[in-house]
Amino acid sequence: MKDTDDIPALMAEIGRRAKTAAARLAFAPAETRAQALSAAADAVNARRSRIIAANERDMAFAREKGLGAAMLDRLMLDDARLDGIIASLTAIAAQPDPVGAVIREWDMPSGLNIRRVRTPLGVIGVIYESRPNVTADAGALCLKAGNAVILRGGSESFHSSRAIHECLVEGLRAANLPEDAIQLVPTRERAAVQEMLTMTGAIDVIVPRGGKGLVGLVQREARVPVFAHLEGIVHIYIDKAADPARTLEVVLNAKTRRPGICGAAECLLIHRDIAETLGAEVIAALIEAGVTVHADAALQRLPGTVAATEADWGREYLDMEIAARVVADQDEAMAHVRRYGSNHTDAILTEDDAAAARFFERIDSAIVMRNASTQFADGGEFGMGAEIGIATGKMHARGPVGAEQLTSFKYLVSGNGTTRT
């Protein structure tokens, strides 16, 4: 019998080893953890051909399953993307270490000195789908924050994730850190996910990264706390005071640069005063770039559009498709975002400072942007080196989840024989 035949036993053993590793990582020197990440980056560079060969096996498997072009793009690795993984590992290694950082310090009249300092969460479970780079990003960020991590990648990226995981383990070995600090679940069986969701004695928090089906499953069935990364139903509101040249450039980038990522624009809201001018120009440019535009009644007369249905509002396409509708004013645009959005990322394009300030104040998404492509909704672009995901909830972590967001805190209280009256 293979060790993957008994999934509950397998996962219990992985959890036990992770807890043991986490106890050691909690006091491992910052320099040692950074050394492990630098060595992992070197290993990725040295094993390029092996990783790409593993990815080719995954790509063939994904094509057989009938995955679309955008999903295949999420899965694919080449030298440029390996360069990106190496750069992320290197950047995370070089970041200030969050563990032990003093968040606040104060003295009390009683004579006590109190410090609130960052401390690791413990063991983090990361469940993700087809993007193999998440293996490196999640493993590195958890290690940087002093946590052990259990990674469960998607079936499509099985071989790619294993090849990248081997590099992370080589880094741990080079730094004399426990190899169990970063573990990859060695099976495609979905039962392993179900086990992770109930491992309250071993896992401190679950981070799901994937589509609505995966995140919904985790939120419904997890007994372990969850940092939710819901859909990226990303809106761009084109205000009547938008700059035409900037608007064209930003919208095209936000939709077409990589349509399969969670920061890709999925819905355009166009102020009625510019619908027949700038709005029409933007839609024509999108269609010319190969985007299918699902237009409301006011925009359906534009050549090349298709009629939008109610299902198009609040839809995450993750493909070369976008919804578009005309709104009477900014208030209607914001009402649409509140009704159909996922609190991920929403943007306004405008030269009107007052309109931008109002949008920033009243849109309660994790990321709110002005005059910038929503494709910047990424921890790496926020200076975090990388991210595990974009948390759309409001508890503990929100927005890009980097190393700092993977810590909790504790209070260190010092006295001088101090007693309470």
Can you give a write-up of this model?
The chain has helices at residues 7-25, 30-46, 48-65, 69-75, 79-94, 133-144, 158-174, 191-196, 212-221, 244-256, 275-288, 330-340, 353-362; strands at 102-107, 113-120, 123-128, 148-152, 182-184, 205-209, 234-238, 265-271, 292-295, 306-307, 321-327, 345-349, 367-370, 390-391, 399-400, 407-414. The protein has 421 residues and is of the alpha/beta class. The chain folds into two domains: 7-229 and 401-414, Aldehyde Dehydrogenase, Chain A, domain 1 (3-Layer(aba) Sandwich); 234-376, Aldehyde Dehydrogenase, Chain A, domain 2 (3-Layer(aba) Sandwich). Strand 14 (390-391) and strand 15 (399-400) form a beta hairpin. The longest helix is centred in the N-terminal third of the chain and has 19 residues, at 7-25. It starts with 6 loop residues before the first helix and ends in a 7-residue tail after the last strand. The model has no long low-confidence stretch (mean pLDDT 93).
Descriptors:
421 residues, alpha/beta, Aldehyde Dehydrogenase, Chain A, domain 1, Aldehyde Dehydrogenase, Chain A, domain 2, 2 domains, four-stranded parallel sheet, 13 helices, 40% helix, globular
Briefly characterize the structure:
By secondary structure, the chain is α/β, with parallel strands linked by helices. Helices cover 40% and strands 19% of the residues.
Proportion of beta-strand residues: 15-25%
CATH third-level topology of the largest domain: Aldehyde Dehydrogenase, Chain A, domain 1
What is the global morphology?
Answer: globular
Name given to the CATH homologous superfamily of the largest domain = Aldehyde Dehydrogenase, Chain A, domain 1
Our measurement of the CA-to-CA distance between the termini, rounded to an integer number of angstroms, reads: 65 Å
Unreliable runs: none
- Which strand order do you get reading across the main beta sheet? 10-9-11-8-7-12-13
- Specify the number of helices: 13
**Radius of gyration in whole Å, from Cα?**
23 Å
- CATH class of the largest domain reads Alpha Beta
CATH architecture of the largest domain: 3-Layer(aba) Sandwich
The overall number of domains is 2
Task: Outline the biggest β-sheet.
Answer: 7 strands, parallel
Tell me the helix content.
40-55%
Q: Structural class, please? A: alpha/beta
N-to-C order of helices and strands: HHHHHEEEHEHEHEHEHEHEEEHEHEEEE
Strand count: 16
The average pLDDT value, as a whole number, equals 93
